[in-house]
Amino acid sequence: MPPASGPDDVLARVAAVLGETLGLAPDRTADLARDTRLFGNLPELDSMAVATVLTALEDEFGILIDDEDVTAELFDSVGALADHVAAELARQHRGQRARA
Q1: Rounded to the nearest 5°, which phi and psi values hold at 30?
Q2: Residues 58/85, Cβ–Cβ less than 8 Å
Q3: Does 7 score more than 90 pLDDT?
Q4: In degrees rounded to 5, what are phi and psi of residue 41?
Q5: Which of 62, 72, 47, 67 is nearest to 95 (CA)?
Q6: Domain coordinates of the chain in residue numbers?
Q7: The pLDDT of residue 2
Q8: So what CATH class is 7-99?
Q9: b or e along 41-61 (b: 16 or more beta carbons within 10 Å of the residue's beta carbon)?
Q10: What is the helix (H) or strand (E) element at residue 57, kind and residue range?
Q11: What SS3 class is residue 77?
């Protein structure tokens, strides 16, 4: 996958991963916005699906999400999840620049 080009791209790709991983209909995936609540709002997102979503996000963005970062707040909303992915991408980018 190409690198994320900005926050809107990260948000769109996180929403797409959620839709694909959870098997959401295209119209439900299209309705996923920054403020869309996840737990309690998407019945497809249960504790078993969390691991699948995390793995799919790691694969999509080429990042590693530490177990200690996996909290209820991480899955509070699509925006919270996208913000975490963006922070991981920035951290990874800083690490690559430091090694160069």
Answers
A1: -65, -25
A2: no
A3: no
A4: -105, -35
A5: 62
A6: 7-99
A7: 53
A8: mainly alpha
A9: ebeebeeebeeebbebbeebb
A10: helix 47-61
A11: strand
Q: Tokens standing for 89?
A: 């991408």
Give the separation between CA 96 and CA 80, rounded to whole angstroms.
24
Query: What phi, psi does 64 have (nearest 5°)?
Result: -125, 125
Instruction: Return the closest-CA partner of residue 24 out of 1, 43, 9.
Output: 43
The β-bridge partners of 37 are 77
Sequence-distant (≥ 6) Cβ neighbours of residue 44 within 8 angstroms: 22, 23, 24
Judge whether 62 and 93 are in contact, CB under 8 Å: no
Least confident of 35-44, 57-66, 85-94: 85-94
